[in-house]
């Protein structure tokens, strides 16, 4: 009988969620995270838990665990993994919930979340990777930094007077009533790894058996921020870290505890929506726009400086004045000029579920990259209006009804290329049948106070309005 | 799937008594050197072969693996080491 030690089937074979180098992790050479990931994967596979495991990932060097494990996973905001894991665990009582957190995440910003999840005895296992430092952000002092340890923010070493004592999370958790397992292990030597394997297996069995909360602190080397070679970093755990953070099982009462199942009461969506006031059955008679569909989802896109966001804003405001439900959501790159900008506007008869738009039913693309990016997302009955002054080639994978509008040229005729957005407004208003020409004029009069600006924009809107008829 | 999956005993291998063996997948090695210092038989060595990741990969330099799996257990890179112990 041959024993084979090899990459666990609980890992993806190729890490396709990773942008590059998809066969290796993103961890630095010698980093304890990789070793811990490997032990967890091995034990998940050995216990046959892969199909029921849900990971909750942290912020920190562990942030990409969803690249590696072929299980369900959720990413939490900084410090919130134990809280998110609580929800995951309660909503999926049959699952094995793993919260994977570092020391900056769990012992600093997320201490309260972590302690309360432990105190409630949630059915989850928490891996607390303690490398005595903020790793991802470049080695700042953490609550777990050792006495006298230097870091970028404690260059002369941690002192008790200034920074307090290193926080001993495993002992704190063990002091609570609810947790069934609290232990500290290390991954710096094969001997310690063998011990860690046993403890981690035990923790996962506790989860399989629904016995409650397990906490495993893992002393992990961070050669990069400790500024040590991998070997030196591992030695340092034995020689220094373990003296302040002794390894071993601090509490294990799993054998005395019964399985605990929390029955999550199922609330139907309607009941919830009712409570939140999200359902209105009666027609709102004050709404003045006749709409093609109950909900129009507009995507306005172009490059920064083309007035995309204000175009969306005008559409939203005009609809709002007619008592429609409206959302406006801008999205732009770091560039103020020249980059791609887009905004999503939803106009609806009923309360709007989400301001984000996956498939717009009206797309306005003022430059070519926007047409290429969003055009294929428009469904067959949707409208695609593109700026034919700047786009000479239309992609052949469009399904919607396509209209060429020389917006920049028409705006230029009206007085300035900057009014291209007003041209579009006129065109869209007529094509969708949402507004009358007089609505547009009234709106522009309220918006533009300078007579010259008003005049140009009125001309531009009219040009767009007329262009919509010709089509 | 169990962790230490049992490979199919295959007839040809059975004729000769199978020895423990180790493979370092050189394209996945980040050259941390931890496996080298923990091999009781000192059969793993640093090399000057630079792999695709840009690291001078660790290699199996000699025979004599006893299948203790130290190298597998300490290696942080999933997939970089495979050990077979008959
Ligand atoms: S910075 Fe430290 S903890 Fe983060 S991946 Fe590198 S070695 Fe690991
Ligand atoms: S299994 Fe043991 S003997 Fe074989 S290479 Fe690895 S560490 Fe050396
Ligand atoms: S422990 Fe792994 S990554 Fe490090 S040198 Fe050995 S094979 Fe390479």
Keywords:
heterodimer; A: 471 residues; alpha/beta; Rossmann fold; Pyruvate-ferredoxin Oxidoreductase, domain 3; 7-stranded mixed sheet; 6-stranded mixed sheet; 17 helices; 37% helix; B: 86 residues; Alpha-Beta Plaits; two-stranded antiparallel ribbon; 4 strands; binds iron/sulfur cluster
The CATH superfamily title of the largest domain in chain A = Thiamin diphosphate (ThDP)-binding fold, Pyr/PP domains
CATH class of chain B: Alpha Beta
Give helix % range of chain A: 25-40%
Cα(first) to Cα(last) distance of chain B is 19 Å
Measured between the Cα atoms of the first and last residue of chain A, the distance is 77 Å
Percent helix range of chain B: 10-25%
Q: In what range is the share of β-strand residues of chain B? A: 15-25%
The low-confidence runs of chain B, each spanning 5 or more residues with pLDDT under 50, are 5-14
Main sheet characteristics of chain B: 2 strands, antiparallel
Radius of gyration of chain B: 14 Å
Shape of chain A: elongated
Quaternary organisation: heterodimer
Bound molecules: iron/sulfur cluster
CATH C-level category of the largest domain in chain A: Alpha Beta
Describe what this molecule looks like in 3D.
- The complex is a heterodimer of chains A (471) and B (86).
- By secondary structure, chain A is α/β, with parallel strands linked by helices.
- Chain A folds into 2 domains: 19-256, Rossmann fold (3-Layer(aba) Sandwich), CATH 3.40.50; 285-470, Pyruvate-ferredoxin Oxidoreductase, domain 3.
- Chain A is 37% helix and 17% strand.
- In chain A, the strands form 2 sheets. In chain A, strands 3-2-4-5-7-6-8 form a 7-stranded mixed β-sheet, with helices on both faces. Chain A has a 6-stranded mixed β-sheet with strand order 10-11-9-12-13-14, with helices on both faces.
- In chain A, α14 (407-414) crosses α17.
- The longest helix of chain A has 20 residues, at 451-470.
- The model of chain A has no long low-confidence stretch (mean pLDDT 92).
- Helices cover 17% and strands 24% of the residues of chain B.
- Chain B contains 3 helices and 4 strands; from the N terminus they run αβαββαβ.
- Chain B has one domain (20-84): Alpha-Beta Plaits (2-Layer Sandwich).
- Chain B is of the alpha+beta class.
- Chain B starts with 10 loop residues before the first helix and ends with a strand.
- In chain B, the strands form 2 sheets. A two-stranded antiparallel sheet of chain B has the order 1-4. Chain B has a two-stranded antiparallel ribbon with strand order 2-3.
- β1 (3-5) of chain A pairs antiparallel with β4 of chain B.
- The complex binds iron/sulfur cluster (3 copies).
- One iron/sulfur cluster binds next to α9 of chain A.
């Amino acid at each position: 009988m041959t024993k084979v030690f090899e990459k666990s089937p609980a890992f993806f074979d190729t890490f396709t969620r990773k942008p590059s180098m998809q066969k290796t992790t993103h961890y630095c050479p010698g980093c304890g995270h990789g070793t811990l990931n490997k032990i967890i994967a091995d034990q998940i596979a050995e216990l046959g838990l892969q199909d029921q495991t849900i990971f909750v990932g942290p912020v920190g060097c562990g942030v990409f665990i969803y690249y590696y494990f072929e299980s369900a996973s959720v990413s939490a905001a900084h410090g919130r993994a134990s809280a998110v894991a609580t929800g995951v665990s309660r909503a999926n009582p049959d699952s094995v919930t793993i919260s994977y957190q570092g020391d900056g995440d769990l012992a600093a910003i997320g201490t309260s979340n972590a302690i309360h999840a432990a105190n409630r005895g949630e059915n989850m296992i928490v891996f607390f990777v303690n490398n005595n430092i903020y790793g991802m952000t470049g080695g700042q002092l953490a609550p777990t930094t050792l006495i006298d340890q230097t870091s970028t923010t404690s260059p002369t070493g941690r002192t008790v007077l200034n920074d307090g004592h290193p926080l001993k999370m495993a002992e704190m958790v063990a002091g609570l009533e609810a947790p069934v397992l609290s232990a500290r292990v290390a991954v710096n030597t094969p001997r310690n790894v063998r011990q860690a394997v046993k403890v981690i297996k035990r923790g996962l069995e506790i989860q399989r058996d629904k016995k409650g909360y397990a906490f495993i602190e893992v002393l992990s080397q961070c050669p990069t921020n400790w500024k040590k070679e991998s070997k030196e970093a591992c030695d340092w755990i034995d020689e220094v870290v373990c003296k302040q953070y002794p390894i071993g099982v601090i509490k294990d009462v799993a054998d005395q505890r019964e399985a605990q199942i929390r029955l999550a009461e199922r609330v139907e969506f309607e009941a919830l929506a009712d409570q939140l006031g999200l359902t209105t059955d009666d027609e709102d008679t004050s709404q003045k726009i006749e709409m093609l569909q109950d909900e129009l989802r507009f995507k306005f896109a172009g490059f920064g400086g083309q007035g995309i966001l204000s175009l969306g804003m005008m559409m939203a405001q005009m609809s709002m004045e007619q008592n429609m439900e409206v959302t406006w959501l801008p999205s732009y790159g770091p560039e103020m000029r020249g980059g791609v900008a887009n905004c999503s506007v939803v106009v609806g008869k009923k309360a709007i579920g989400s301001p984000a738009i996956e498939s717009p039913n009206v797309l306005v693309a003022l430059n070519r990259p926007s047409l290429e990016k969003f055009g294929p997302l428009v469904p067959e009955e949707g409208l695609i209006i593109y700026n034919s002054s700047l786009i000479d080639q239309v992609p052949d994978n469009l399904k919607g009804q396509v209209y060429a509008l020389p917006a920049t040229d028409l705006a230029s005729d009206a007085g300035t290329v900057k009014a291209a957005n007003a041209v579009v407004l006129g065109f869209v208003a007529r094509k969708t049948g949402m507004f009358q020409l007089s609505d547009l004029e009234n709106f522009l009069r309220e918006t533009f106070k300078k007579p010259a600006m008003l005049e140009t924009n009125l001309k531009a809107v009219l040009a767009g309005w007329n262009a919509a008829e010709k089509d | 799937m169990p962790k230490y999956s049992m490979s199919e005993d295959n007839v040809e291998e059975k004729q000769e008594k199978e020895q423990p063996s180790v493979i370092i997948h050189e394209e996945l090695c980040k050259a941390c050197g931890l496996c080298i210092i923990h091999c009781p038989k000192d059969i793993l060595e640093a090399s000057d072969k630079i792999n695709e990741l840009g690291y001078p990969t660790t290699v199996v330099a000699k025979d004599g693996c006893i299948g203790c799996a130290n190298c597998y257990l300490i290696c942080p890179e999933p997939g970089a080491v495979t050990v077979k112990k008959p």
